[in-house]
Amino acid sequence: MSLELTLLVWSAALAFAYLAVQSTVYRLDYGVKFANGQRDGERPPGKWAARGEKALRNFLETYGIFIALAVATELSGRSDGFTQWGSQIWFWSRWVYLPAYFIEAPYIRSLIWTISLIGLVLLFVGVAF
């Protein structure tokens, strides 16, 4: 199995981590009873629940691109230094991004996001050219 496909498989654990954090902070903010109901009349989220939702949404915005590029790399047999570095950069920076979203470091969080984008660009260049 290629490195890109391996990271794609492990990205399911990454996605689960984002979902688990978002779900946990949501339940801490709204309460388990409300979270397990229909959520009618939902008030605006607190600081942590909002950050959990934003972090998850941000992850999902790039996850589909990673999936498409990792699968394209595997199917085309074009795994190379660009695709391998790009996959690793995206994968590990997305792990670092999750806790960074919850600390008061906006420039660091943005830098981590930019690094993850560079990973996707490298992956794209490796498979497309």
Strand content of the residues, in percent? under 5%
The overall average pLDDT, rounded, is 95
Poorly predicted runs are none
Overall shape: elongated
- The sequence of SSEs as H and E is HHHHH
In short:
The chain has 129 residues and is mainly α. Helix content is 81%, strand content 0%.
Question: What distinguishing features does this structure have?
Answer:
0% strand; mainly alpha
What would your notes on this structure say?
The mean pLDDT is 95. The chain has helices spanning 3-30, 32-35, 47-76, 81-100, 106-128. The chain is mainly alpha-helical. The two termini are 22 Å apart.
Blueprint of the fold:
Blueprint: H1 3-30, H2 32-35, H3 47-76, H4 81-100, H5 106-128
Helix pairs in contact: 1-3, 1-4, 3-4, 3-5, 4-5
